[in-house]
Amino acid sequence: MRYSTILFDLDGTLLNTIDDLTDAVNYALSQNGLPEKSLPEVMASVGSGYANLIGKVVPGGKESPHYDAVVRVFLEYYPIHSEDKTRPYDGIDAMLRELGQRGCKMAVISNKGDAAVATLNRRFFGDWISVAIGEREGMARKPAPDAVFLALELLGASREGALYVGDSDVDIETAHNAGLPCLAVSWGFRPKELLLQCGAENVVDTPQEALAFLLAGE
User: Does residue 121 register a pLDDT over 80?
Assistant: First the structure.
């Protein structure tokens, strides 16, 4: 294979989580008497962790007197409902199965809370992905490369032969900061035009195209 180790973003790359995230955001907002957000508005706000997500959807941002309460309700609601509508994108299971059968080492790296990342990975991808890292206290979130380096350590892999796969500007920057090549995917939360503007050198539109890219050169 072109790459022996592949590090995946989670939301918008492997899993379509936007419906559950939107429901959780709007529940938290409504419980605090604040206007709800549309799915596209929430989609444009995800990618940098829960605190930043809420900061973008609460009127007045993190300086709002409602901010802490909205975060609290969101964190109470979302873990219970994070699997209500969330599903892998079409073609993801087949892609991971093929990569796993070829002996590829794989990990998930996300700015979602660590417990939720572990739960979702175990449910949907546990047969193939052994390492799942979310936002943890004391570790800088993406686009810092800390989680990338930890994942490589846990996999017993080096940066040589490793690739980062994600759907956002944050993922492109994360790969750059870690010194890894990046494969950007356009089926997630950011349009292809934005990914190209952010410096993506390789962009694929489907998991089938991603697999063909990963297997190229065999």
Answer: yes
**List of residues 6+ apart from 30 with CB closer than 8 A:** 36
Q: Nearest 5°: phi and psi at 58?
A: -85, 125
Can you give the pLDDT at residue 48? 81
| CA 69 to chain CA centroid, nearest Å | 25
Whose tokens are 């190229």? That residue is 216
Q: Which two tokens stand for residue 51?
A: 């605190």
Q: Match domain 18-81 to its CATH number in 1.20.120, 3.30.450, 2.60.40, 1.10.150.
A: 1.10.150
Domain 5-16+87-215 has CATH 3.20.20.80: no
Cα angle for residues 140, 82, 22 (degrees, 5° grid): 85
pTM for the structure as a whole:
0.91
Which residues are 185's β-sheet partners?
Answer: 204
